[in-house]
Amino acid sequence: MQVTATALPEVLELIPKRVADARGYFSETWNSKSLAQVGIDLSFCQDNESFSARKGTLRGLHIQAPPNAQDKLVRVVAGAILDVAVDIRESSANYGKWVGVELSAAKGNQIFVPQGFLHGFVTLTPDTHVIYKCSAFYAPQSELSVRWDDPVLGIDWGVQTDQIILSRKDEQALSVSELGALLKCGAVA
Ligand SMILES: Cc1cn([C@H]2C[C@H](O)[C@@H](COP(=O)(O)OP(=O)(O)O[C@H]3O[C@@H](C)C(=O)[C@@H](O)[C@H]3O)O2)c(=O)[nH]c1=O
Known about the structure:
This protein is mainly beta. The protein contains three helices and 13 strands; from the N terminus they run E-E-E-E-H-E-E-E-E-E-E-E-E-E-H-H.
């Protein structure tokens, strides 16, 4: 497995080996021992899949507050996405900084998004399937959503604004400063 740190060193791009033969390929897409060797020593408890029919579907930016914070290991099994992680750890020198990694079924690459980071993605293809492992269970009472287009973050999603498709929840998301205030006063858990 090839592991590359991104501009935010805690966010990693992983490319598991594919062993090709006349039939196609075989790949170990998750192996707890190999991940522990690169510092991701977690027990994942939930696997998720989302399907997005249209290109430009944007899911995010999401996070679950402690004690339900989640680490996520994300990959694409059909199509391609730009996957984005934003560091919102209060004590971090990188607070408010983001990275984007293009994930595709063709490349088979993955992104590791740790606790303390907002996560979101936009689909670059129609009929896109994304699957990801989470280290904590879904806890809707702890869930927070931050605006994808918060000017403080200035994320370049690489997609024309008029092509973006959002859920109602994401249309009504908080600004990153509102999120910071909520987390600081412990209003969400
Ligand atoms: C996230 C989640 C949602 N749901 C339900 C709630 C709702 O009825 C339906 C759709 O939920 P959402 O609109 O939140 O789905 P979505 O916008 O795809 O949310 C996901 O976005 C990406 C970027 C993430 O990082 C994930 O953690 C998650 O927040 O599925 C679960 O049952 N379990 C879950 O773990």
